[in-house]
Amino acid sequence: MRLVRTLAAGIVLAAALPLLAQGGLTVPRTIEAGSAFSVQSSGSGQGTLYIVGPGQVLKRDVQLGSSVNFEAGALYNAGHYLVFLSGSGDTASLDVLPSSKVADVSFLARPSRLPVGLRDGITGAVYLFDSYQNLVTKPTTVDFQLSTPGSAAQNRNITTRDGAAWIAVDSSPKEGAAQFIARVGDIATKRIIGQVPGDPCGLQMTARPAGPKVALETAPVRDCSGNAVPDGTIITFTESFNGGQTTVDVPLKRGIAKVEMPAYPGATITVASGVVLGNQIRWGR
Question: What pTM does this model have?
């Protein structure tokens, strides 16, 4: 909690008080990751200046009473740093803030494949990083777009919070490979989402005599958005007669399922695909 308050105070005071004298050391209160900066010491003689923080340690031999300059890129990991000057025992601290400029967009999209027309079925999460791989915590607008050939594109603008943005969108009504894009300024990251037809919808069959049998055939099988259900999908024909039952599973071929079954007068014939039921035929009444 104390560290959080220190960081917050540093951000507020940075503009009004860029340098702060702390026990004989004058250091920046805050700097942006990768920025050049300097540390002014007091006294006389020789000493060694240390700057210690998350994942980094800088060491410089100094003449006390002089300024030590650090080149751009010397301090690049965001966090809270301790400044220590051996020889005088002076200490200070400074906070390194992430750059406000986004250099890298990490984009996670799930799932990679799903049925069409699924509400909030596709999710995307974005994390923004500066050129030193610090999480950019400044609120930033991320443009999301999901587009599938033959369908209207879905566009959303989301503002990041603590360096991250999250979104859920519907899968398109048309099958095909969707481009899911997250864009920040000139940086765009793309993921491909495979959208496949949903369950059969409005399943219909017809029946006609075929010698001693009845020939059954479905209409072209489509999902509720009109996409053709893929070949290989199992269609189940069931014939019930005098308390007995015959069931035949037939894979779709060129979008249609065909089968021949015994022609019992008064038999009831149904068609289904999984839990989806089609029409019912009463044969030979």
Answer: 0.73
